[in-house]
């Protein structure tokens, strides 16, 4: 398959080169008056019939007795019989010249096959007729040599990337030679096709594949990195929010406990005040309190044997009056403590 492709491409190149040679040979075929026929000339020049009508966008060169006489503008023209002769016919329209395919070597030793299109226009019919034998052939050859020279100073990557710059350089060089000397202006030059060798194409395809794989791996790694960053940021925010919630919970718990303690202390103080008021303002309140304290003392003393096996018995257990006095001393001590606590509140 590869060999058939190469044979087809070789045949195409040979056909283009043969066509270019045939055009160059045809440009030197003599016309009816024996003068060489250029690219813009017809094979048969208009004959002198005294009265002629020059078509629009055409310029006819008239020689009188073999010497340039004048240029006929479009419209009616009167010629002298047997003396004046129309020697050249120049078209003033923009024309396209196909530049045959050629080989050029870049500065990094890569052989390229290129062809192009050249757009030209005759701006001075006199110079286009007498300044060069065949300006089409001359411009075509100049374009090919300039293209080789420009490509020889550039690398393959530069040729592929800077095609417009290459076109402008070739156009500038052609205009420097053709505008002033040949009366032809090169409007633009366009490289049509660039064909690198097959091994270079394969290497370029591998390079593109490697570049795309590299970009894919970079994007994947960037995605993984961003995902880890997002996860860590989420965990960080979660820990911060959890700590803030715990802090608020502890603050609320502390406030609740403080209010609970305050309410209990207020309730205790209020209860103590009421008991004290009842004792002081009720007849026999002191005796009743002493009696109750003594009873509670005896009751609790009787529970000592139930709570533990070890029982501490006072020495004056038989002295009930002393026991009552001990209970009353405890009552008085408790009462004094309650009074001090109430004063603080």
UniProtKB/TrEMBL annotation:
Source organism superkingdom: Eukaryota
* Keyword annotations from UniProtKB, A to Z: Mitochondrion
* Pfam families cross-referenced by the UniProt entry: Band_7 (PF01145), Band_7_C (PF16200)
Segments traversing the membrane: none
Q: Name one GO biological process term.
A: mitochondrion organization
Q: Where in the cell is it found?
A: Mitochondrion
Family, according to the entry, reads as follows:
Belongs to the band 7/mec-2 family.
Q: What is this protein called?
A: Band 7 domain-containing protein
